[in-house]
Structures are given as C-alpha cells and as structure tokens.
Design goal:
Layout: E1 2-3, E2 6-10, H1 15-23, E3 28-32, H2 43-50, E4 57-62, H3 67-74, E5 81-84, H4 90-95, E6 100-106, H5 113-123, E7 129-133, H6 141-150, E8 156-159, H7 167-173, E9 178-182, H8 195-203, E10 205-206
Organism: Aureibacter tunicatorum
EC number: 5.3.1.24
Pathway: Amino-acid biosynthesis; L-tryptophan biosynthesis; L-tryptophan from chorismate: step 3/5
C-alpha cells in the first residue's frame, strides 16, 4: 500500500506518532527544534526517535529568521530537510547550508496576497514545497479558493480544512501536491488517540500501482 499524494506530519514530539506515521508510509516527519517553541524536542529525544525511523525524510522545523542561529541549531540535529517561515531564507538555506527547503505559510496571518505571491516567486527556485497551515480546523471558502489557485503555480501542501470526508476530493480535483497533518500529545508515553489522523491517512491509501 501507499498514499496517493505527498503527506507531511509536523510538530511530532513522541515516538508513537513517529512510528505510526512511518508505518503508514508518509513522506516527511517534522520536529520543531527551537527551544522556545511549545512543541520543542531536545537533541537527545530527537535522536532517540529518529533512530527508529526509516524510509521517511526528517524535517527540522524552525521559526527563527536568523540564519546564523539556524545554522547553529542544525549542528545538533541530523535532518535532511529544513522548514522555515521566513521565505527570504530559502535561498541561503538551500545554497549555503545545502538543505532541501520547505517554506511554511500561516493562513492565520496572510497579509497582502500580492506580496505573498511575490515572496513565493522569489523562494520557488530554492523550495521543494510550500506548507500552508492554520491553527483553525476550518478554512473560509474564499481563503481555500486562494490557496487552491496558488497550487496551480506552486507546489503546495495544505494543512487546514482537511477531513477524512473531503481529503480525496481535495487531492483528486485540485493541483495540490498533498497534505500536511499535525502530530499531537501522547495520552501517556506510548499511548495515543490516532483516530482523526488515522482516518485521513487510511482514506488516501492506494495500491502501489495506483500512485
């Protein structure tokens, strides 16, 4: 079995999420590696988790806009991909630090849409995927329409307004490259409620030859 489009899981901070998602053959698993972030994972815990994983790209998720601070952080984490929120950093991280780059765009603070498009155009040559996420579960129709229109020109993973009921329609009828889902807190170490994530991932499972 496989998943029909690209799937990234972000904000992972426990082995249960990581192993489950790797077993479901997601493409990327992301960990927030900044000490000030609520979902921060220490280098020691990170190492303990990623050594159990295979077949997935490991993403270091960073909000900081200081390239020197980012470079220092990355010396402590063995990652293949770096995700940043400052699109202006894409070229330097890709060209100077030699990482594959994901650029995160918050749907909660888009600002001027034309300015966003201009920034995306500049970052596009150095960016594998643009990650559109929101703290809200639902998106307005107008906002979703804007994102889906951008997907015609940019490689985008959508991380909001997704459910097991609509995920196949979104992936089959739009130009989205895939989706991104968020990991969560363990109920207690080793135990987790996977229901919502599992429902979405199972909904987009296909035979390998169908992908």
């Amino acid at each position: 079995m496989a998943l029909k489009k690209i799937v990234k899981i972000s904000n992972v901070n426990n082995l249960s999420d990581a192993r489950y998602c790797a077993g479901m053959l997601v493409d990327m698993i992301g960990f927030n590696v900044e000490a000030t972030h609520s979902n921060y994972i220490s280098p020691e815990d990170y190492k303990d988790i990623v050594e159990w994983l295979s077949g997935v790209k490991i993403v270091a998720e960073i909000e900081n806009s200081d390239i020197n601070a980012i470079e220092e952080i990355l010396t402590k984490y063995d990652a293949q991909v770096v995700q940043v929120s400052d699109l202006n950093l894409a070229e330097e991280i890709n060209e100077r630090l030699r990482y594959e780059v994901l650029c995160k765009v918050s749907l909660d603070s888009l600002g001027d849409f034309d300015v966003l498009v201009e920034s995306m155009e500049m970052a596009k040559p150095f960016t594998s995927l643009f990650i559109f996420e929101s703290e809200k579960d639902e998106l307005s129709d107008s906002l979703k329409e804007k994102v889906l229109s951008l997907a015609n020109d940019f490689p985008i993973l959508l991380g909001a307004g997704i459910s097991a009921d609509n995920v196949n329609e979104l992936l089959d009828s739009t130009s989205l490259q895939g989706i991104t889902l968020k990991g969560g807190e363990e109920i207690k170490p080793g135990f987790k409620d996977f229901d919502e994530m599992a429902d979405i991932l199972e909904a987009i499972e296909v035979e390998d030859w169908e992908k």
